[in-house]
Amino acid sequence: MKEITRLFDFPYYQLEKYNLEASLVTKSNGVWVKTSTKEYIDKANTISRALLKLGVQKNDKIAVISSTNRTEWNIMDIGILQTGAQNIPIYPTICAEDYEYVLNHSESIFCFVSDEEVLKKVRKVQANTQLKEVYSFNQIEGCKHYSELFELGKDESTQKDVETRKDAVLPSDLATIIYTSGTTGKPKGVMLSHNNITTNALDASSRLPNLGRDTRVLSFLPICHIFERVLIYLYQYAGTTIYFAEGIDKIGENAKEIKPNLMSVVPRLLEKLFDKIMAKAEDLSAIKKALFFWAVSVGEKWEPYSQNGWWYEFKLKIANKLIFSKWREALGGELHTMVSGSAALQTRLTRVFSAAGMQIMQGYGLTVTSPVVSVEMYKDNHFKVGTVGKPIKNVEVKIAEDGEILIKGPNVMMGYFKDPIKTAEVMSGDYFHTGDKGEIDPDGFLKITGRKKEMFKTSGGKYVIPTLLENELKQSRFIEQIMVVGEGEKMPAALIQPNFEYIKIWIEKEEINIGNSNNEIASSEEIIKAIQDRVNTCNQKFGKWEQIKRFELTPEVWSIDAGHLTPTLKMKRDIIKAKYHTLIEKIYRP
Predict the structure, then answer these.
(1) Which of 21, 50, 88, 93 has the fewest C-beta atoms lying within 10 Å of its C-beta?
(2) CA-to-CA distance for 387 and 446, rounded, in angstroms?
(3) How far apart (Å, rounded) are the C-alpha atoms in residues 378 and 380?
(4) Which of 551, 587, 572 is nearest to 453 (CA)?
(5) pLDDT tier for residue 102 given thresholds of 50, 70 and 90
(6) pLDDT tens-place string over residues 372-424
(7) What is the pTM of this model?
(8) Cα–Cα distance for residue pair 447/325, rounded to 1 Å
(9) Cis preceding linkage at 371, omega within 30
(10) Distance between CA 586 and CA 581 in Å, rounded?
(11) How far, rounded to the nearest angstrom, does the alpha carbon of residue 279 sit from its chain's CA centroid?
(12) 3-state SS of 428-495?
């Protein structure tokens, strides 16, 4: 097998080295349907032949929008790339107007959608785009099914034309444009070449635990985001079987069915998982409850490489047998590694899940860096709690004088599509300015300390890093989301979305006489006092100028659909500030 230099080389490498009977597996009508490596490639080639018949030229753009990860997405990905065209993945949860913007800005000429909900958004704006046709993965009345392309491309005599197109694709050619969800303004189109992504997958591969044909991976983070997508290529390179979850809400159910060994996660998911585990503990008998919380307290003190000594390891062994084994069973019983990215993870969760035998590998990266910059690895002492590991091979990290993290390497994007001015704003020579602040410790571990733009100065001239306060307070089960505000004001304050699900359970258990609606909870003196207690505890860990003096609760659930969060669950700070301008004014100018 020749060197992997283009994205469509990955499945061919897998065919030659592993030739899996189950390369990609998707659940359809209640049954897990396996696609072998050979079938995967054959179908991708058929798609390529069909696209050529449809007149697709090199550098044409084809959009793919799917509500869940599925085999069809990957077949389309390889089928598109082999023709020299580009795959334009679009977040399914954005609004129809944003669909219109991305489809037009990218100049997409065909669009493939997963389901009726996505199709409705596309149909709403289709007349205002350059789309020649829309195809669906699900059978939907009034929409062409993507299986029509298998009929169109069944003539294998034209495969030579596909091979000619493949041979003409250079590693330096554009492979995809990923539109960043962005916390402000219109999304920017990040141009990533075949070389950007292939080198990143290959350079990051050594950081994962040993993978192979007996490894099962559960994939559910959006494949339209580069984090999950590069892992999919990496898994193909390692010869693992990839199972696509039916949805975020089915992770537990699917995990019990397939017993995954590894999956990627984002911090918000782990926070919610931990909250659910803790909530269930409230219903245990007194003895079982005491044992549960003892085990959690042991887990919270976990350190890698048995640094706590033999007595701690003995207690941890007991905690694992009595409590943590049940956590693992809830996720199939064979999950040993979770790769976490997208945002900062509470060190408490790193410790507890790692203590429970589900090793957390925290990484750091951005869409523009394809994405991996650094990632932890348990072997070879590449693991330190509170860091995002050491930079991967061929990626250079430099800390600027103002603390900003700068990145250089083959993974750095080609630029923003149609926007050389914004590209120039974030580049200094070969270095990309991340906007994140960080430090590298004496052992070479990278630690993220905040965002340049998110850090603010109070009217007293003191700097505040909101993420430090937010991550500390999100450990409270009463708090679902929190955003610290106070730029130019006399003190920091916070907007808080209560954890309504947990609070309703708490109200019932404590027999507190307040209403059950979100509005009643957000205005309840008992709930405000309970959250104030947690804010007071948090404040003790920070300097006086950083402490949160006041807060307001919001009755709305912060969500992607309502515009509070990006598709990767990051807060849209400017939008949240605008939505709750009245509450902020109430805090500072009552």
Answers:
(1) 21
(2) 6
(3) 7
(4) 572
(5) very high
(6) 999 999 999 999 999 999 999 999 999 999 899 999 999 999 999 999 999 99
(7) 0.85
(8) 31
(9) yes
(10) 9
(11) 25
(12) ECCEEEEEEEEEECCCCCEEEEEECCCCEECCCCCEECHHHHHHHHCCCCCEEEEEEECCCCCCCEEE
Residues near 321 by beta carbon (within 8 Å), at least 6 away in sequence: none
Selection from 77-86, 182-191, 577-586 with the highest mean pLDDT? 77-86
Under DSSP, the state recorded for 571 is B
Distance CA 273, CA 269 (A): 6
What average pLDDT is seen over the chain? 93
Amino acid at 229: R
| pLDDT tens sequence across 245-271 | 999 889 999 999 999 999 999 887 888
Across residues 297-307, what is the average pLDDT? 96
Identity at 246, one-letter amino acid code: E
Sequence-ordered list of residues with C-beta below 8 angstroms from that of 474, at least 6 positions apart, any chain: 271, 346, 481, 482
To which H or E segment does residue 579 belong? Answer: helix 573-579
Residue type, 188: K
- Please give the single-letter amino acid code of residue 151: E
Contact assessment for residue 484 and residue 493, using Cβ atoms and an 8 Å cutoff: yes
- The 10 Å Cβ neighbour count of residue 585 is 10
Where does residue 543 rank: exposed (0-12), middle (13-18), buried (19+ CB within 10 A)? exposed
At 184 the pLDDT is 53
Encoding tokens for residue 477?
A: 């089960």
- What burial letters (b/e) apply to 279-311, b meaning 16+ CB within 10 Å? bebeeeeeeeeebbeebbebbeebebeeeeeee
The contacts of residue 210 (CB under 8 Å, 6+ apart) are none
Q: In which band, very low, low, confident or very high, does the pLDDT at 306 lie, cut at 50, 70 and 90?
A: very high
CB of 2 within 8 A of CB of 18?
no
pLDDT number for residue 1: 66
